[in-house]
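ok so for the tutorial part 2 we go from a plain amino acid sequence to predicted structure tokens. step 1 is just haveing the sequence, like this:
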Amino acid sequence: MKLFSVILLTLVFCALRAFADDAHHHEDLTPEQLGTVHFPVSCSPSVQQSFERGVALLHSFWYEQAETTFQQIAKEDHQCAMAHWGIAMSLWHQLWNHPDEKTVERGRSEADAADAFRPKTERERDYIAAINAFYSGPSTRKYQTRATDYSKAMQKVYQRNPQDYEAAAFYALSLLASEPDNASNQGNRKKAAAVLEEVFAVEPNHPGVIHYLIHTYDTQDMAPLGLPAARRYAQIAPAAPHALHMPSHIFARLGLWQDDINSNLASIAASRQYAEMGGEGHEFHAMDFLFYAYMQSGREKDANHLIEEIKTMPPMKDMYGMGFDPRISKLVAFEASYPLELHKWQQAAALELVPGAASEDESITHWARAIGMAHLGKAAEARKEIAEIESIRKKLSEQKKSKPTLEAIDQDRKQAKAWTEYSEGRKDHAISLLRSIAEKNSGVYQASDQIPAREMLADMLLEMNRPTDALAEYQADLKTNPNRFDSLYGAARAAQQGGQDEKASEFYAQLVKNCEASNSERPELTEAKVWLAKQQNVNAKK
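step 2 — the prediction. this is what the tokens look like for a chain of 542 residues:
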């Protein structure tokens, strides 16, 4: 605990060194610390700088502070139409939630107010018309329709104002926000990338352009393209917790664990530094990636310290009206993943439900318990956990929960069922179940999520003494989830059992390299070091 606190304090200084003075408050944040934004408006000249700061905050998804900034501008200049545009933009968190009816009504009210003040320029009228395209219409209007209409309107703003980098950035973001669920052709992403790369070449300090490039490239096949933006974002916007975290989306995709860790420690530190500005909620998303990187780089002790840290934190109010306490959600996920990643089946089987957890989070605990019990040969107990998952899914389906939520729970059920079937001797059926999940998830796996189904499939094949098949699955998983600890270790063992000593050495060497900064006592790491030392001696004698 003390070590974690020291690290955070150190990174507060490093990441926020431009303004790390005990006397500094939020009003000291300058546009330079949030990136370079140029957004001229016809409001009073006295609010121009504040307006651009508000837009910069929007670009780094610091929506709470952006809304406060635009509200203050509206008070200072009662005729500033674009202040109400800014408030309306702050209410829609484009890439992670769909506004509820109450939020849509608020947004429509602000957009109408912006219209009522009769904006003085055509450019401003176009921006306001675009946000009206999202909020207008009956409350029953579907989110996808709203987002698509907004994107079409922003395309017009972009085309009419080719020198306006803000129009380019917001148009690109709208393409990502309106991308259909489970889109396979990446058409919107490719359009967004073309728009953003053009601006990035001439304005490398624009926070929105860099931020949205990272989101655009946050897929397995596109992640390498996002590395320049990832390296740049934290440098140009060190005052924004999300800007410090966001590069880790690319680092995690590429298995760059130390970069991932540094990014999220700095983000957590900044979140706590600016908690009074609404920054506290951002730390939980950063913790998600931090925990994952710790587990993949042999720093399980640090991961466990993070779990203990979360346990001591007070409950958090519902963030952004999304219906859950992010602290509890992360505690559930971490406590479930920790023993499964370490193959501590007894610990997984003995997990307790976290008080206050939402039903969808309880499903994660039942998933981990079922897998733990299946590995211990307790199939009957595992079946009871699977029944609990099925009950949760039925209840949430009746409550009309979102399709992604129901699909995630069903995936938990299938994975748990696969290991239970395996423990009961129905191994071919178990393999078939895991393979169906692995193939469905190909190309959409989120880098900080739970254990990949393809890795589980490879583990199962290795247990069945099918090293050649297991190695093929491990290698396939490493292409989409580079440098995962278990996949590297499993691939090395599979290669070793298949008589491919050179290939085994390559995987073991990468595993040891990834864990250089750790003091891990994991037996897998010890095994890797012993193997490499043995091979070195063999080669020396040749």
